[in-house]
């Protein structure tokens, strides 16, 4: 459903962009959360998927009412993220500074890049990665990240051009991974979200105490290139600013067994993602069933 949101067509998306940029943020967020509630109550499959996911995150001791409430709030958080997605490109540098809360762990980012092989920045679909990208671009960090292109070239330009204009490099999700290698060779950052279900060809990990399948890509890319694997997040804070954290690069020692190495590194990534999602489960946007 949400993937189809971006295929509405140029004029509806242009209208949403205009309203997001012109309406007062408080009003936009209020409407977004109401739309989130409406979607939660009317989209049966998405609601059931999200409740099941949150049941894993909150644990078996959580009451069913609590699980359902966190799942409901995640829909409102996602629609608020959509408001930001269309609003942020219009922000000035001064407004980005004003909305930037505390971000810790910059030293881990610097250390990862100091090795000269680039860094792979991995995180979940959590919080507001768009604002995180804006903060990195404002600090002149060379960032590349995957983004969908659309059937309509005008829609693609509407959605992606403002990010490119800020210096963020877009890598289309078309199966060509050569831009990843070139970016790392230039000692740049590559951003990848890894928490989508990947049952065919994925790596089996223990995630919140149950088996799940996550993509092998970040681990395989790091093992092949020597680029550091860095975990980080950006999230909405209670005062409607945005803060985050970079964690130390994942430490691993290759054994020479490629399959075993990928599994072990991906498990380390999964453990780090757990810690992030537990900070604010309602800011984790996972409307597909992650666990079988």
Q: Terminal Cα separation, in Å?
A: 20 Å
Number of strands: 9
Largest sheet: 7 strands, mixed
Shape: globular
Largest sheet strand order: 1-9-8-2-5-3-4
Which parts are unreliable, with pLDDT below 50 for 5 consecutive residues or more?
none
How much is the average pLDDT? 90
**Nearest-angstrom radius of gyration?**
19 Å
Order of helices and strands: HHHHHHEHEHEHEHEEEHEEH
Helix content: 40-55%
Q: How much strand? A: 15-25%
* Total domain modules: 1
Total helical elements: 12
Would you tell me the structural class of the helices and strands?
Answer: alpha/beta
How would you describe this structure to a colleague?
The mean pLDDT is 90. Strands 1-9-8-2-5-3-4 form a 7-stranded mixed beta sheet, sandwiched between helices. A two-stranded antiparallel sheet has the order 6-7. The chain contains 12 helices and 9 strands. It has 292 residues and is of the alpha/beta class. The protein has one domain. Strand 6 and strand 7 (210-214) form a beta hairpin. It has helices at residues 2-5, 10-22, 25-42, 44-58, 64-87, 93-99, 106-114, 129-138, 153-165, 178-185, 217-225, 258-279; strands at residues 100-104, 119-123, 143-147, 169-172, 189-193, 203-207, 210-214, 228-236, 242-246.
């Amino acid at each position: 459903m949400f993937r189809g949101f971006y295929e509405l067509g140029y004029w509806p998306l242009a209208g949403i962009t205009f309203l997001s940029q012109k309406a007062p943020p408080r009003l936009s967020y209020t409407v977004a959360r109401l739309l989130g509630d409406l979607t939660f109550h009317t989209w049966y499959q998405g609601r059931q998927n999200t409740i099941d996911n949150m049941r894993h995150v909150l644990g078996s001791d959580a009451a069913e009412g609590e699980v359902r409430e966190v799942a409901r709030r995640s829909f409102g958080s996602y629609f608020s993220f959509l408001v930001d997605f269309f609003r942020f490109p219009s922000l000035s540098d001064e407004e980005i500074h004003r909305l930037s809360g505390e971000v810790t762990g910059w030293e881990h980012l610097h250390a990862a890049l100091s090795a000269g092989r680039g860094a792979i920045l991995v995180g979940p679909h959590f919080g507001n990665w768009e604002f995180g990208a804006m903060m990195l671009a404002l600090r002149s960090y060379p960032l590349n990240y995957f983004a969908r292109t659309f059937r309509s070239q005008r829609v693609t330009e509407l959605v992606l051009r403002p990010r490119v204009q800020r210096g963020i490099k877009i890598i289309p999700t078309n199966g060509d991974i050569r831009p990843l290698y070139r970016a790392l060779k230039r000692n740049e950052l590559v951003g990848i979200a890894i928490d989508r279900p990947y049952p065919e060809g994925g790596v089996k990990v223990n995630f919140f105490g149950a088996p799940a399948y996550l993509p092998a890509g970040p681990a395989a890319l790091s093992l092949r290139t020597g680029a550091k694997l860095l975990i980080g997040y950006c999230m909405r804070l209670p005062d409607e600013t945005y803060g985050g954290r970079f964690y130390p690069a994942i430490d691993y020692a290759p054994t020479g067994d490629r399959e075993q190495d990928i599994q072990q590194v991906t498990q380390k990534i999964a453990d780090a993602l757990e810690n992030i999602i537990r900070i604010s489960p309602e800011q984790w946007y996972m409307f597909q069933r992650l666990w079988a």
